[in-house]
Amino acid sequence: MFGVHWVVIVIFLVIGVLAIKMSDLRHRFFVLFLILCALFLYSSFMIISEKHLLDLSSSKGVFAAMGVYSEWLVHSYENVKVLTGKAIEMDWVSTKKTKQNGQNKTVQKKR
C-alpha cells in the first residue's frame, strides 16, 4: 500500500511540472499552489486513514473516514490558531529583560 502512495505523489508532481511548463508565468504560482494543496490533502488523508484503520471499501467507511479527516483538519486549524496566538504574545522586541520573582525587570548595563 505504501508504494501506491508514492506513485500517486509522483503523478501529482509530473502533472504539476507539465502544467508549469505549458502555462505562462501568472498561472504558475496558482498551479503550484493547487499541487501543494493536493499533495497535502492526499498525504494527510492517507496517514489518517492508516492510523485509524479506516475502511474505504464501503460507503459507510468512506463517510466515517470523511468525519475523522474533517475532525483532524479542524483540530489542526485550532492548533495553528493557538500557536499563532502564543507567538504574538511573546515579546519579540526587547532583549534586555529577564524574569525574576514573577516580574519582568530591566537588566542594567554596568558602566
Count of DSSP strands: 2
Total domains: 2
Residue-averaged pLDDT, rounded? 77
Give, in spatial order, the strands making up the sheet with the most strands: 1-2
Q: Provide the β-strand percentage band.
A: 5-15%
H/E topology pattern? HHHEE
Q: Indicate the radius of gyration in whole angstroms.
A: 23 Å
Secondary structure tally, helices: 3
Provide the fold topology:
Layout: H1 2-22, H2 25-51, H3 59-89, E1 97-100, E2 103-106
Antiparallel strand pairs: 1-2
Helix pairs in contact: 1-2
Mind explaining what this structure looks like?
This protein is mainly alpha-helical and 111 residues long. It has 2 domains: 45 residues; 34 residues. The protein contains 3 helices and 2 strands; from the N terminus they run αααββ. It has a two-stranded antiparallel sheet. The longest helix is centred in the middle third of the chain and has 31 residues. It starts with a helix and ends in a 5-residue tail after the last strand. The model has no long low-confidence stretch (mean pLDDT 77).
Structure summary:
This protein is mostly helical and 111 residues long. The chain has 3 helices and 2 strands, in the order H-H-H-E-E.
Relevant terms:
111 residues; mainly alpha; two-stranded antiparallel sheet; 71% helix
